[in-house]
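Q: You know discrete backbone vocabularies at least as well as I do. I have my own habits and do not want them to colour yours. No explanation is needed for now; the record alone will do.
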Amino acid sequence: MRVLQLISTIGYYGAESVVCGLSRESHRLGHGTVVSTLTRKDRHSGTIVEKAQGAGIPAFDFPCSGRIDFSVLRSLRALIREQRIELIHSHNYKSNIYAYLAALGKKIPLVSTCHNWTVATRSLRIYASIDQSLLRAFDKVIAVSDKVAGQLRLAGLPDSRVSVIANGIEIQEFETARPSVPAPAPGEITIGTACRMVPEKGIPDLLYSFAALLDRFPNIRLIIAGDGPNRQEFETIARKLGISGRVSFLGFQNDMPAIYASMDIFVLPSLNEGMPMSILEAMAAGKPVIATSVGAVPKVVTENVGVLIEPGSRHALQEALERMLASQPLRVSLGRAGYELVSRQFGVRTMTESYLDLYEDVLHHRGRKQSPQLLPCDTQ
């Protein structure tokens, strides 16, 4: 197979991690993989391209201007032709639009992964509505959880076009990582999270809960990795709570395994999720998890690997943190069980094999007789 992985990106978050893991594992298994990113000219993020090229995968970045950049669309169509692409796999609403337009007249099958529809603002609701309509033209749409699959069916996609494939991660890079955040003082416990700085991630709930615990646990600190439009707002909340000296906003991080290695407890208090990669990554790093019961999270964070709480409940979050902070044996036990669960069920090989089977099925139903001859590929 010759598959193009296409994603619009402004950073390196869950969907980006999926693209990298899927591309590298497909490449290791001997399949022709090409990676392409669509980036904003004012917010270039080359992490995916760099990681792909480092694995010997042809990878190309297209900085875009405007909602539809027709020069980029022409370049993408040329890339599809030159790289003999048989199937396009896109990963969010913007890349879905470009994939659809780039494939017009080429009879190339289209596959999309719906990681989650975020509807926190009016513009995002409009984008989600456009995406729902556009996905009806795709051969297959993959949901990362049963909840997302239900949303796709409610949007009018027939059951035959919807599949569920859980996210998977490259566990090895988390096993050997060393902490990158400066070592805490003796006896200090590090609570951490990693997410995009947007309201639906529940960061204010985490800040208020952390502040309420400082009197009883003066030896705790909080590290928050990730960037986004609401970062300044969250930093202002920390200042108003008087906890700025105990909270570090790390911004975008290239080496996430090292960030997880710096944590003792991982928290994700999201109000809305699909299948969050950050939880799987924290578990692969052997960290106990506190998370909200949204999306596919309850299928991953069971009572023997972490603590589930109701979304938006600061009281429940504070209680869960107190329980973990008070017991190092509990943290160790939950972290070990989480690592074993991810190793068994959420490895990148399992995810990739499911995608490869789906690609073959789509190509078979499109009537592909044989793969075109592969061309030598130069990265750029």
Observations:
- Residues 369-380 have pLDDT under 50 and may be disordered.
